[in-house]
## 1
Amino acid sequence: MRLSQYFLPILKETPAEAQIVSHRYMLRAGLVRQASAGIYSWLPLGFRVLKNIEAIVRDEQNRAGAQELLMPTIQPAELWRESGRYDDYGKEMLRITDRHDRDMLFGPTNEELITDISRTSIRSYRQLPKMLYHIQWKFRDEVRPRFGVMRGREFLMKDTYSFDVDFAGAKRSYNKMFVAYLRTFARLGLKAIPMVAESGPIGGDMSHEFIVFAKTGESEVFCHRDLLEIAVPGDDVNYEGDLQPIVDRWTAPYATTGDKHDPEKGKALGDALVSARGIEVGHIFYFGSKYSKPMKATVVGPDGEDVAIEMGSYGIGVSRLVGAVIEASHDDAGIIWPDAVAPFAVGLINLKVDDAACTQVCDDVYGRLRAKGIAVLYDDRDDRAGAKFATMDLIGLPWQLVIGPRGIKAGQVEIKRRATGERQDLTLDAALAQIAG
RNA sequence: CGGAGCGUGGCGCAGCCUGGUAGCGCACUAGACUGGGGGUCUAGGGGUCGUGGGUUCAAAUCCCGCCGCUCCGACCA
């Protein structure tokens, strides 16, 4: 993409409303624009990041055996009356009335819908287990939206729901998602630690929040430092095998969010205790028959008796992750995108567009990179070198390829790794080889 | 939902206290000079001062209502 033609509204000054670093950079780098409190438009650069994150989330869900579907944003109130949540949910739920005066709502979550789907289509235990997910916009009418996309009212979320005939099956589903989440966040370049979370109405230990450390995190968290060093399951992980040892390994060390912290246990860890602020990027939990019972989602079991389906739900805040990644990866000059989510892999800087030879080389390099399938943002604008460097640093592309008349004379180009700031003068071929990695 | 604050060209702000010609920086347009870390000069365009009412000869400025947005707290992926 040629920057001269790209829609990238960069802000030199920080908008007054942005308090935390990810929000500031998302506005300044032209990723999003606020439409209303807690509601954002995604501009081209931000949209690319959002889609990259979504693709990784999707890939890992599929790998774990979950199947994608898509449920609507607008739901009938009727289902929520069945589960009893229509009255319980309160003002966070945006209620709507259609032209026929029917009560509708903008979904804050999808348990009711998915339970309705399962009860009409899954009749026998032989059809289980199943894991279904969707990636969809949700709306929660937060009293006080803040921190940009980190706590918006409208947000993109991946929700998986598992269906099993008994607890042992539900546990296997839970473990699959546990492992999938470890892998997903690692691929996004994040170190996310599973922590014991509020277990909800069912109790037990099958509820974990996945937390990313960040100075601006919204809640205080505590964990054993060993958790920061455990290797994430690799591509070869077998989801059909026994995942319990992996889960045990990750859940053995102490790790909990602030509200469940036990100071005694913390003290016992001594130097090994890590206390930090964290951002919740995922939450998995088992809820048994909480919805299947009232909504009569049952299957015929092996013994011919009806049993309520055992369910769990597993969320990842996709849009929130854009903010979380920035919180975890930035410096004073701007964003530092991990390779896996970067909107473009390379920023190509033409230092002197009115130098015919220089532009010739840059155009050629632009073509070669694209031919290799490498996403490149080509700064072909007639602007000062300094301004171009500052823009590239702000938008945080992993590689900068800098080409100017001076280097061309010496047979060299400069590549800069955004994350380290390291710069190398190389021949063009060597630079391209390095970028292609 | 409790407490606090802010709405003035696209963005960041001053002006308001003490009523009297709407201003600055950035961005934008044109030209010239410049050219390896957010350049300089010249000349321009763009604002019914959130909105409705009130006071007054006169309201961005004083008073009241409403709307929007932000911050602290409680709450939440």
## 2
Amino acid sequence: MARQKKYSEEEVVEKAMNLFWKNGFESTSMQMLEKEMGINKFSIYSSFGSKNGLFIECLNSYKIELNRLMDKLRATENGAADIKQYFYDFLEFSKGSDLGKGCLVTNTSNEIDIYTDEKITEVLINSTNDVKQLFASSLRKELEKDELIIEQQADYLLLAMFGLSSASRLFTKTQLHNYIENTFKNI
Amino acid sequence: MARQKKYSEEEVVEKAMNLFWKNGFESTSMQMLEKEMGINKFSIYSSFGSKNGLFIECLNSYKIELNRLMDKLRATENGAADIKQYFYDFLEFSKGSDLGKGCLVTNTSNEIDIYTDEKITEVLINSTNDVKQLFASSLRKELEKDELIIEQQADYLLLAMFGLSSASRLFTKTQLHNYIENTFKNI
DNA sequence: CCTTAAACTAAACGAACGTTTAGTTATTTT
DNA sequence: AAAATAACTAAACGTTCGTTTAGTTTAAGG
């Protein structure tokens, strides 16, 4: 062994993640990443291999943060009301300095031409499935209903969450809250 | 006067529009546009000034097409049921070869860093307002209710439409139809 | 203490981007 | 028919992108 790294990979990934979250994948250049992460291009490449490789680490870092929100929902047993709270929690979680930052997974799904990068696509699909399963199991606790209804309501709320996170980058807090309230009127 | 143009600007704009619609603004290169529009870069620049200038023409061309859908809704007087039909009509309108293409306005809102290009932002905002006003006036015909309720329901449906068009690029027809049905249960 | 190897800096890489320019062709008008 | 002018072709422009490479510094192991 020789020299030790001056930086923590975990720390620089989190910085990169926040930059990707705010600006998107394509609009975030290696130059911006160098500055934000505080390390040289060479160090980025030696630690993560490529911009894609770094981005995948960022997606994983994001999922860990998002999982703290999901754990809160997992811990409760009141069905739809808790999912609604999850929607509000998400808005708080994704708050930017002015408009919201959306969800890194959703933003990426909107940006990336699907199936362009196999590994990234896989993370996105898995993450989406996780959220749907979380909604389904939350609904199951409340409803004791036909699995078909559970499936449909979970899918509905999945798309609503997808829409909300996309919309959070453009619409006002009032509009977003109004959207949540109306979404849960009939659940 | 000297030579006449070999191409119709209207025709090449529509071809460009479809390319932007499918691939997004950034991912559509001048090289791709040359090929798809069947004219040289020079001709594109002499007709439209810049990539942004061409794109704005494409947004206008898109709005003309979208207005045909909106006219159908304008012509009816049955409130929410017709708006629901508009949602289904939109899915048909935005159908791609495999997954949907979404809405050019929504796709652009998701892609562009808001307020980066003033002119583009203006078109996006105006277009969004138009849709909201269309929903509001449709609801007004049915409801005879408090303007506040109209406003809230129109905003709710606006965000639902925004979410649907974003989701249409990623989710299945079944999921999208299920989303529409559940959305209108709340109206 | 000296060798060695990994982490560092900084510069350059080729490719692709949007845009411009120089030079040619074609058609209208005088 | 000649002159004029706009549409055309094709090549090159300067930037920026992600990535790589050459050369230097640092510190651990024998």
## 3
Amino acid sequence: MPWRASPGAQPDPYHVWLSEIMLQQTTVGTVIPYFVRFIEAYPRVTDLAAACDSDILGLWAGLGYYRRARNLVATARLIARRGRFPQSPSELMELPGVGPYTAAAIAAIAFGIPVVPVDGNVERVVARIYAIETRLPTARPAITAAASQLGAQPAAVRHPGDFAQALFDLGATVCTPRNPSCPGCPWNQSCSAFALGIADQLPKKAAKRSREVRYGTAYLLLDPHGRIGLRRRPPTGLLGGMFELPGSEWTPATPSHEPPVPADWQQAGTIVHAFTHFELRLTVNAASIGALPDHLTAAPADIPLPTVMKKAVRLGLSALEGAVN
DNA sequence: AATACGGGGGC
DNA sequence: GCCCCAGTATT
């Protein structure tokens, strides 16, 4: 992992912070290329602080949870002004986008402070070691207390960053959500859930509710230079601050709508995209036009976009190509 | 305590 | 198709 310090080397707090923000609810494999591109573009936190919001949003496009990118900019500028990173968990918690987990992770990994960051991996490992059968999220306080108890071992106190990352690695490779590799686990002799034969049933989670369906229509306008017409979403809320195709609201019932301009509109089809709390079925219409209207931003078709809009643009462009042939 | 907030990968 | 992920902020 490109953010992890070599054995014996001093961790870079900027790398640790950036990676931990990116890794919130996001898998290692997804994060790596984004992290590498960010460090290439902005080698130091002062470089990030000096960059413009739009460039940073563009580099973040596709990674999801876009509020993280806005908080990232604000924090980079704060750190650059102060000239140093906060180190204690309580100070770190004051940074936008840094909660209890990330504060503990940065404090332990970047600054060697003996705290245990409790993420999904650690939650699972600890729930199994102590056979905590209470359902989440009710079990969270008990799990946090048990994690701190583990972190109080002398070896963990001597190397808080290594201990935290070892817990992550154990959760990612051995103590997995399904089919955990208990026979080869270095902690199986200390694991109550293994002794009880219930490791794969823990932690218990609350039942999920079903995902609502919403419908919308989007319009792809293509000019003779191969540019498409986009607009900027509001800075907060879903896909906050990102570019999108113009179109209708997204609602549980098919919304009424008008094309942004009169044109020879063709139906390109419908894309389906799953968000966290609803599924979007977006019907895409496409048209070629001599000049894009002033109220839209003319952008190259490969401009960074959130994934749902990439899908829509691809479908719209393919319909226009098909019409030419 | 519940909900909003993306996207990708595993099975 | 469902579950999960190096969670946080808001209500």
